[in-house]
Specification:
Elements: H1 2-17, H2 19-23, H3 28-35, H4 45-48, E1 54-60, H5 64-80, E2 85-91, H6 95-107, E3 114-118, H7 122-127, E4 131-132, H8 134-140, H9 152-157, E5 159-160, E6 163-164, E7 167-172, E8 174-179, H10 180-185, H11 197-211, E9 214-218, H12 222-230, E10 237-238, E11 250-251, H13 256-270, E12 274-276, H14 282-289, E13 293-299, H15 303-308, E14 315-319, E15 334-341, H16 346-359, H17 362-372, H18 385-393, H19 395-405, H20 411-414, H21 421-437, H22 442-464
Parallel strand pairs: 1-2, 1-3, 9-12, 9-13
Antiparallel strand pairs: 3-15, 4-15, 5-6, 7-15, 8-13, 8-14, 10-11
Helix pairs in contact: 1-6, 1-21, 5-17, 11-13, 12-13, 13-21, 21-22
């Protein structure tokens, strides 16, 4: 699975190399959002005045059950929309494949009308300037999607320089999965506070000492690291997570409360309290499902796997533990967002916006959420009678929603915006794995990760000609 991470980083360097040529084809609509100029987004008449059917395409990387749930929504749109729109949805493979194909399509002017891009691709998607900002489309089409209906955490994540660029389709949030049976065996009561990293670590040590089982595991991915940084009240990338007009120049995991928390996590591995979860998370999930570990920070989307694998013990999701409890913040969101092409025809752009409106509508989001485990992006789902019934029977979903809805509009919780994020994540994972294995001191690994990130960010900006 390390090969997969390296593939992503290698592919990113290819993406960066094509940025300048891709940017030259961008329309003025994306530029106007950045500079504060007037919008050039088309309005409803662009579609109503169009002759015949309007065909649009959407590319995505949702596989398995998630892909089937997404295709079901697209089929419903095609069957019910009154605007003579036909949508072709195409699965383009995992992250690296999807982005590589998209970059090739930009060069050949064959890009899809809509791109459902993963959160880590946001910086790249903004830099190639091939998309009409969501804020412009919403302003030009007031009868369709209302952006204020979208979860504030989702809007915050996809807003750069004060302008919302994309619309989240599927959101996940990291939580702390807890094996209650194992904690009880260790003498830890259900009402014991687990809201901080220190409390979680103390309990993990107790589990190991009293039961012999592992106290902690996690997927060896950088999203978890980024959330330990966010809950420390720190911007993962500095300055300002790259969100306020100045490009990110480094990362902050080697300093402050984030470094302290991550060093404590590393110590769990070195003392045998933690089990390595592997890059793809398979070892972490397997250990948790089989009752061998007490705590597993993981995305909310793993709930489906826990149900499918038939976990035999009492488990629940708790809010992600805070690295610094003094910070009144929260975690960053994961998932994917819809980016609308600036080089599609005006009729296709409005048709694409109609599709975005349908995909993010309360009924669509409720259906998709129940099928996949992703959190609804539309806040109006909360008032649905069927959603209320669902939440009453699924308390873990209540935790997901409370955490996402309680995330403040702060740069620290927004996540880093940079096209170099894939390379940064790859480098961070390698350094943390070395620390987990005991081949490098924790602080040295964090310092090396920060240095690697600084190099990746510098190279990225040089590729952009900045």
């Amino acid at each position: 699975m390390k090969k997969c991470v390296l593939t992503v980083a290698a592919a990113t360097s290819v993406f960066i190399a094509g940025l300048t040529s891709c940017s030259s084809t961008s329309s003025t609509s994306s530029t106007s959002a950045t500079t504060g100029g007037s919008s050039s987004a088309p309005g409803p008449s662009a579609l109503t005045d169009a002759k015949g059917d309007t065909d649009i395409s959407i590319w995505h990387g949702l596989g398995g059950a998630n892909g089937k749930a997404f295709q079901k929504l697209v089929d419903q749109f095609n069957a019910t929309n009154p605007n003579h729109i036909h949508v072709t949805a195409s699965y383009q493979g995992v992250y690296a494949d999807l982005l590589a194909k998209y970059t090739a399509a930009l060069r050949s002017n064959t890009a899809p009308t809509l791109m459902l891009a993963g959160d880590v691709a946001s910086g790249y998607m903004a830099d190639v300037k091939h998309s009409i900002p969501a804020a412009e489309m919403a302003k030009a089409n007031p009868g369709d999607l209302t952006l204020s209906d979208i979860s504030p955490a989702g809007r915050n994540y996809y807003t750069f320089n004060g302008v919302q660029q994309a619309v989240p389709m599927n959101m996940s949030t990291p939580v702390l999965w807890v094996n209650r049976d194992l904690l009880r065996q260790a003498g830890i009561t259900d009402n014991t506070d687990m809201s901080t990293v220190d409390a979680m670590i103390a309990a993990a040590n107790t589990v190991k000492q009293k039961t012999g089982m592992f106290g902690y595991t996690m997927q060896d991915d950088d999203w978890t690291t980024e959330n330990y940084t966010a809950t420390a009240g720190q911007n993962f990338c500095t300055p300002d997570n790259g969100r306020k007009g100045q490009a990110a120049t480094t990362i902050s995991i080697n300093s402050g409360a984030a470094a302290t928390a991550l060093s404590k996590i590393v110590n769990l591995y070195r003392t045998g309290v933690a089990l390595d979860g592997e890059v793809d998370g398979s070892a972490a999930i397997s250990a948790f499902v089989t009752g061998k570990v007490a705590f597993m920070p993981y995305g909310s989307g793993v709930l489906g796997a826990l149900k499918t694998d038939g976990t035999k013990f009492d488990y629940e999701a708790l809010p992600f533990p805070a690295s610094d409890p003094r910070f009144k913040g929260n975690t960053t969101v994961g998932g994917s967002a819809l980016w609308l092409s600036s080089t599609a025809t005006p009729a296709q752009q409005v048709a694409g916006w109609k599709l975005e409106t349908f995909l993010t509508a309360p009924s669509s989001q409720e259906q998709f959420s129940h099928a996949t485990g992703y959190v609804p992006v539309n806040t109006k789902v909360d008032t649905s009678p069927t959603q209320k019934t669902f939440l009453a029977a699924n308390p873990n979903f209540r935790v997901f929603l409370k955490q996402i809805n309680g995330s403040p509009n702060k740069t620290e919780t927004g996540g880093c915006v940079s096209g170099a994020m894939a390379a940064i994540r790859s480098g961070n994972v390698g350094q943390l794995q070395a620390a987990f294995a005991g081949t490098k001191p924790a602080q040295a690994a964090l310092d090396a990760a920060a240095q690697n990130a600084q190099t990746a960010l510098t190279q990225y900006q040089q590729q952009l000609g900045r």
